[in-house]
Amino acid sequence: xxxxxxxxxxxxxxxxxxxxxxxxxxxxxxxxxxxxxxxxxxxxxxxxxxxxxxxxxxxxxxxxxxxxxxxxxxxxxxxxxxxxxxxxxxxxxxxxxxxxxxxxxxxxxxxxxxxxxxxxxxxxxxxxxxxxxxxxxxxxxxxxxxxxxxxxxxxxxxxxxxxxx
Amino acid sequence: xxxxxxxxxxxxxxxxxxxxxxxxxxxxxxxxxxxxxxxxxxxxxxxxxxxxxxxxxxxxxxxxxxxxxxxxxxxxxxxxxxxxxxxxxxxxxxxxxxxxxxxxxxxx
Lengths: 165, 108
Fold this sequence. Notes:
The complex is a heterodimer. Chain A is mainly alpha-helical. The longest helix of chain A has 27 residues. In chain A, helix 4 packs antiparallel against helix 6. Helix content of chain A is 59%, strand content 11%. Chain A is built from six helices and three strands, in the order ααααβαββα. By secondary structure, chain B is mainly α. Chain B contains three helices and no strands. In chain B, helix 2 packs antiparallel against helix 3. Classes of the chains: A mainly alpha, B mainly alpha. Chains A and B meet through helix 2, helix 4, helix 5, strand 2 and strand 3 of A and helix 1, helix 2 and helix 3 of B.
């Protein structure tokens, strides 16, 4: 087990790199498959120091469902933000909210923060040094409590399950 | 016939994308402060650019066989948009308050 992990320290990253290579070339010819595999093998080895903790997906099947949910939320919330932007200025009620964090590992927190920023109407502004809160800026929110609840149940809970943390 | 339908769909997606990018830009001008302004461009990149890319996938897949370059573009956008938004927000917070909002301790 140890030997295998030292040869391929991040199998998921390797797979992703290979996929990116194939997409870059818009081709799945054997030559590109081979070159992609080589890159997927070499790059994680050279960048090992940037990945202090291995990323483990405990529930890979959930990833797709989560991605679908995030994409859907992006579409829905984009219309909401468009309405705020084009509507009367008085309707804009920006607010900072603190979202208490249950997930701890770097990667999980990063994913959560990015998802919050990607879904319109909220941007992650900061995380405190002990990782107890995310500071989230909401464009227009009448009910900050509801926003926090939504982030925790809709995004944080699945992330917690996916990474088993 | 099918080609015409595809072209119509492509045109619709391009217009939709352009519309959302426009809304994002209007937001950048209209919204009152740096934090609210952040919302405009970060959002426009998601759905606006997303629709344009989808239009591109349709257009080129119909003519030259499956084209998936665009997936990569959106992947990179999804990776970089939150990071730059986060950096700008943090820089704004630091400038305004002189320290991070949660803690007295220094960040390093």
